[in-house]
Amino acid sequence: MSGVGAKLALVLGGLAELLFPSGCAGCRAAARGLFCADCSGLVEALPAWRCPRCAGNLPPPLARGARPFLCSSCAVALPAFDLVIAPFVYGGPVAQAVRRLKYRGARSLAMRLASAMAAAGAEVLRGADAVVPVPLHPARRRERGFDQALLLARGVASEARLPCLGRALARIRPGGHQVGRGREERSAAVAGAFCARGDLSGLSIVLVDDVVTTGATAGAAAQALREAGAARVAVLAVARAL
Ligand SMILES: [Zn+2]
Ligand SMILES: [Zn+2]
């Protein structure tokens, strides 16, 4: 799409979000819940058999009743976060909903997705002290005019009645394009991309992002929180790509 075409799509998309704030988060058809009946059939929850740390795929269990174990990426280098929680697997209507988050005016959509996140992360949120968004780089934020992780974090914090520390993390380096890289390469690309402000000593933090792909970005952000003293970091996203 050309630059002008993309801008126009953004404006029209934003207008549609303002005019039709409810409806299916995926296709905008009439819906009682977050997704319409058709889209609901395509939405997947995370499988119970997943890496307990990053929620990534695992090879099939060897025995009945086996407990999930660390995936090969986490076994090689343990991420700085304790676990990843998301109500959905990334794809289909969920991917459409995440794309729509980028439009201005998608605030009500962010609140509805945040409510699904708060439900999925209820247990972790109960024991947490604060919610922190994974920030965009300031240049990226200016370009987009909008920070979807911040909106999601505010929504989750208000559902859980926790403070949202929107400035606890800063992105000091842009991430570059990460498509098609594994966690190891992505981790190298985002290492040191974040710095934490203030003293987070002993705090249990819920780190919010829109999508967790390999976990490398969340890992770098969690590392910065740990360096500022955070005792526990759980990542809560709309979706985990598997
Ligand atoms: Zn739908
Ligand atoms: Zn893992």
Order of helices and strands: HHHEEHHHEHHEHEEHE
β content, as a range? Answer: 5-15%
The average pLDDT score comes to: 89
**Percent range of helical residues:** 25-40%
Beginning-to-end CA distance, first to last residue:
27 Å
Structure description:
- The protein is α/β, with parallel strands linked by helices and 242 residues long.
- It has a single domain, classed as Rossmann fold, CATH 3.40.50.
- It has ten helices and seven strands.
- The protein has helices at 3-19, 37-40, 72-76, 92-100, 107-120, 122-126, 138-144, 148-160, 183-190, 216-227; strands spanning 83-85, 88-89, 130-133, 169-171, 194-196, 204-212, 232-240.
- Strands 1, 2, 3, 6 and 7 form a five-stranded parallel β-sheet that branches. Strands 4-5 form a two-stranded antiparallel ribbon.
- α10 links the parallel β6 and β7.
- α5 crosses α8 and α9 packs across α10.
- The longest helix has 17 residues, at 3-19.
- The chain is globular, with a radius of gyration of 18 Å.
- The two termini are 27 Å apart.
- The mean pLDDT is 89.
- The structure holds zinc ion (2 copies).
- Residues 51, 53-54, 56, 70-71, 73-74 line the site of one zinc ion.
List the topology elements.
Layout: H1 3-19, H2 37-40, H3 72-76, E1 83-85, E2 88-89, H4 92-100, H5 107-120, H6 122-126, E3 130-133, H7 138-144, H8 148-160, E4 169-171, H9 183-190, E5 194-196, E6 204-212, H10 216-227, E7 232-240
Parallel strand pairs: 1-7, 2-7, 3-6, 6-7
Antiparallel strand pairs: 4-5
